[in-house]
Amino acid sequence: MKKYVIERVLPGAGKLSQNELRSISQKSCEVVEGLNTPYHWIQTFVTDDKMYCVHIAPDEETVRRHAEIAGFPINKVTEVKGIIDPTTSI
Q1: Is 31 in contact with 66 (CB distance < 8 Å)?
Q2: What is the pTM of this model?
Q3: Which DSSP state fits 14?
Q4: How far apart, in whole angstroms, are the C-alpha atoms of residue 89 and residue 19?
Q5: Phi and psi for 48 in degrees, rounded to 5?
Q6: Cβ–Cβ < 8 Å for 9, 46
Q7: Residue-number span of the structural domain to which 18 is assigned
Q8: Is 86 a domain residue?
Q9: pLDDT tens digit sequence for 20-62
Q10: Which of 66, 14, 10 minimizes the C-alpha distance to 41?
């Protein structure tokens, strides 16, 4: 499976309450369970006006299907080609 970063433009995202974030999280989990295909939501970074989500899925089409079913905006999907961190320098 492949790892993807999904950019979602959501004005005011940084001002969402914990209850609103919980509701979004619950919806995402419900959709993941109903996809009937291997799919993993890893995490989401919330900024002022965007969310950046990390998902593992078989293909971009499945990522887009997850967003459509959940009713989430999806502005850009980028496949991760590699990961580096401080241990990469060793």
Answers
A1: yes
A2: 0.92
A3: G
A4: 40
A5: -55, -50
A6: no
A7: 2-81
A8: no
A9: 999 999 999 999 999 999 999 999 999 999 999 999 999 999 9
A10: 66
